[in-house]
Each structure stands twice: as C-alpha cells, then as structure tokens.
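Our working data are protein records whose layout never changes between entries. The record below serves as our worked example for the rest of this section:
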Amino acid sequence: MLNSKKILFYAGTVVWLFLLTALIVYTFFPYQKLIRIAFQGFLSGSKMVVSIEGAKLKATGAQASKIVFGHEALKDQPLFEIEKANIFLEPFSIVKGILSVHSNASAYGGKLTMNVDNIPFIRNTAPSIKIDFTKIDLSKYPENRLPWFKGISGQMSGWVKKEMPLMAPEKQKGTFAVNILNGDIKELYLKNAPRLSLPFKEIAVEGRIDGDTIRLNKIFIKSIGDEISGSGTIESNDLEQKIDLKLSYEATSKGAPLPGKGVVTVSGNQWSTEINVTPASQDKTDTKK
C-alpha cells in the first residue's frame, strides 16, 4: 500500500512538472520569442513575424506542421520556412531554477535543430542558444527574396551559438560558422557593373557576436577561377544595420568571373546593399589622381 502511494506521489510530481513547465513556456516564453532572440542582430529580430501552422500540444512539448518566418521589410513574402517542427521541454530543469527547450525541424531538404538553455525561472541567468543546420539545399529557396542576388544554390551547413541576457540584449555574445558547397550565386547585384553570376566550390564564413557588432573574421569564396577573401563588420540593432565588408579577389585561371585582381566592398544594410568591384588597375589609377 505504501509502495503504491509512493508511486502515485512520484507520478503526480512528474505530471505536475510537465504541466507547470508547459504553462510557463507557452505563457511567458513562447516559441516566437525564442526565434526572435536567436536571430537578433542578423535579421533585426524584433521586426520578424512568426506564424505557426498545424500546432499540437504534446505531453513533452509541441509539434507544428509548418513555421513561417517573415520580416517587415518583405511585406507579404516569407523570409524562410521550416516544416515538421518538434519542440521538447525539459521539465526537470525547473528544479534548477531554469527552463530548457529543444527543437528540431526540416528546412529545404536539410535539418535544423535549436537548443535553448538557462531560460531564467527562479535564477537570474542568460539564455544560451545553439542553432545547427545541416545539408540545407539552397536551390529550393525561392528566387528574388533577398536584395543581394536573384538566387543561390549549394548545400549549406553551419551553426550559431550565443548568450543573451533578456533584459540587456546589447550584451549578447556568440560565435558562428557557415559553409556552402558547390553552388552558384545568380545575378549578384553590383552597383558599378553588370549583374554577375558567380559559380563556386565553397563559401566559408566565420565570426563572433559582440553586443550590437557582428564581426565576420573570415570570409572566403573559392569560385570557379577566382579566390575571394576578406573580413568586416555588421553593426546591427532593432532600428538600423550597417554593413562594412572589404574583400580582395584574384583570378586563378582564364575565364574567371572576376578577372585579374581587385577589391570588393559591401556597404548599406541587409535590405539595401551596395556591392562595388574595383579592379587593381583602376584602383592604382584613382590613387595617382
């Protein structure tokens, strides 16, 4: 009889933890807010619009058939979509005074996972976010959606890690890395030249997040006949964004999209960029003047 009471007591405790955690997460820390925090700085997270389709509440979390991410700058066009999203709660993390949420989903033929830990409940903690994406087929991404180029193909993988105090987002810290293999940038929009198609073997970007500054410490593009490398910064907050990138290029074979040597600069913001290509010969001429 005593054993039965103990079993019922522990079972009731487990059920209570699940229900309490679900109530707290869905009332005070919805999935939409997690997404905005994750993309804060990269895409002006507070201006993102998130809609969830086919949502179902489960014993350990929730499930959605589709999650559509939009942005004020795109009006009625989705920024990107993920499908078959599963969101899991860790109810026993509440014992430590924090909450943890984990999710996985499909995106353009690839996989995406997001883990959020240290969500403050009793303790004063800063949420830590880790996003991993693997084998994303960029050829499935709609064309004419971004202002830098008509379209892009290739297989993309990478990750983003960040810590972000909820009451002081300007103190966020993090690192990221993105790798895209065997693709093509279609009709890259250049300010001072015709649109350029840039087939590539690899694009690699690595950097860190330091408050409102995103530092791109490594930008490397191995094109078909060109090598392009450089670095730069993106100053970003909810009101504005300023891009400042400088890359050098050098042709490695005849027929390269960018012949000879030169410099590529990128300025503006994520929705209105200016990409300038300056050949080395022109740069020398300008210097003499």
